């Protein structure tokens, strides 16, 4: 590449490319709270269990990661990337996309997606609609842990991070 990479996004079809735990194990090893976060997100999902996973190829595109270099934040790159992803997913025949966030700014972008009625931005997919299906408040989350002294204590393994982890389902 002869240009600077400033923002990236990852997405996949979970039916065409099912989750492979073995491939993700190095990520879980490096970020042990990631697996806990995924589990909490699934546990808080408001949809009936049978509606949570797509059943056919092309039904729902999962967004599984995004990053923008700090010196390029605030320039609208994540929103433009979201709009582009939605347009390309719709062209490819996807009916929806699902986004797991751990960033309050991404929550704002995906909760009012480009092209959604009232967004007034002329980008994205006209008529797209987002629905928050799961929320985990990392600042207030607590779990009970038994210490070596046998005393049960409430702890926040996320160290009170001021972030709402959300799973947002977007109908295209």
From TrEMBL:
<dbReference type="GO" id="GO:0016747">
    <property type="term" value="F:acyltransferase activity, transferring groups other than amino-acyl groups"/>
</dbReference>
<feature type="domain" description="N-acetyltransferase">
    <location>
        <begin position="36"/>
        <end position="103"/>
    </location>
</feature>
<dbReference type="Pfam" id="PF00583">
    <property type="entry name" value="Acetyltransf_1"/>
</dbReference>
<dbReference type="InterPro" id="IPR016181">
    <property type="entry name" value="Acyl_CoA_acyltransferase"/>
</dbReference>
<protein>
    <recommendedName>
        <fullName>N-acetyltransferase domain-containing protein</fullName>
    </recommendedName>
</protein>
<dbReference type="InterPro" id="IPR000182">
    <property type="entry name" value="GNAT_dom"/>
</dbReference>
